[in-house]
Amino acid sequence: MIAAAPLSLADALRAIADDPFATVIAGGTDLMVQINAGRRPVTSLVSLRNVAELKGWSTESGNLRIGAGCSYSELERPDFAAIMPALAQAARTVGSPQIRNAGTIGGNLATASPAGDTLPVLVALDAQLEIASSSATRSIAISDFLVGPKQTDLRQGELIVAISVPVLRGAQEFLKVGTRNAMVISVASVAVLADLDAQGVRIGLGTVGPTVLRGARAEAWTRSNIDWDSNRVVGNLDEFVALVRSDSHPIDDHRSTKRYRSHAIGICARRALQRVFP
After folding, report:
1. E-strand spans in 100-259?
2. Which residues contact 274 (CB under 8 A, 6 or more apart)?
3. How far apart (Å, rounded) are the C-alpha atoms in residues 196 and 217?
4. SS3 label, residue 8
5. pLDDT of residue 36
6. Res. 1 pLDDT band, cuts 50 70 90
């Protein structure tokens, strides 16, 4: 097997342009499972582990820019959690410490599983993705990037470079349900984020559709059922739960039934909203 380990983004983009069939690897936490199971034949690899431009995060003008190479462990840290608590909560639910040390937010996006733990938060935040090739760069909304189950708009020769999200003022919550309490792929997950400046709530729903979904009907309900002066919900929460369920499109599969997913997403969303507005 041929392997390249570029030290710069330009070198990495050049390497995948020169070898269009190369497999790109960052943390490899999803990819290596496929390779070891014989489901992903690989003839050449381009490792992004040493590309400095993909690492780290920064804030500027009310936005947070996260390098695609940021590991889940980095997103868990107190300085990051103080700015983006829901994303930190989501990162903490991913696998074991070893997985969180290796896995990256860019990998979670590129894998595009509806069960990706960071994705409900990013969808709720209307994340913008910075994507580059050896010849051009472009920006794309996450809602346009995630086109189907494990399908993205990432084109041949492109890499996810960074993710940009707004820094909101308000409480945030991420919850997920799985077949056990730890190191598990979610059966249903939800992100609920308050935006005090816009007096609105943003909701992302995971594992209950072909891609991660936005809870648009439930968001609309919150606009007239939250007292922003007292920071509490004044509407009927059963209505909110029903709207969350109508925003979701779960299916039966080997991990859960459609009926249970619908039940779980409603319960999780209710609890998350109650924690954001205690």
Report:
1. 128-132, 137-141, 146-148, 151-152, 159-166, 172-177, 188-195, 200-206, 213-214, 226-227, 232-233
2. 233, 237
3. 19
4. coil
5. 83
6. low
Tell me which residue of 211, 175, 178, 169 sits closest to 191, measured CA to CA. Answer: 175
Give the domain 172-276 fold.
Answer: Enolase-like; domain 1 (3.30.390)
Q: Which token pair is 219?
A: 């968001």
Q: For the chain, which residues make up each domain, given as ranges?
A: 2-166, 172-276
At 92-122, the pLDDT tens digits run 999 899 999 999 999 999 999 999 999 999 9
- pLDDT grade for 2, boundaries at 50, 70 and 90: low
Question: Cβ-count burial of 68 within 10 angstroms (0-12 exposed, 13-18 middle, 19+ buried)?
Answer: buried
Question: Using CA atoms, how far apart are residues 164 and 194, in angstroms rounded to an integer?
Answer: 18
In terms of C-beta density within 10 A (0-12 exposed, 13-18 middle, 19 or more buried), how is residue 79 classed? exposed
Whether this model's pTM surpasses 0.90: yes
**Hey, what CATH class is 2-166 in?**
alpha beta
Report d(CA 170, CA 65) in Å as an integer: 19
> How many residues appear in the chain?
278
Q: Is the dihedral of CA 213, 217, 220, 224 positive or negative?
A: negative
The encoded tokens of residue 156 equal: 């041949």
- Residue 125 Cα distances to 8, 57, 122, angstroms: 29, 16, 5
**Tens-digit pLDDT profile for residues 143-175:** 999 999 999 999 999 999 999 999 999 999 999
d(CA 24, CA 154): 12
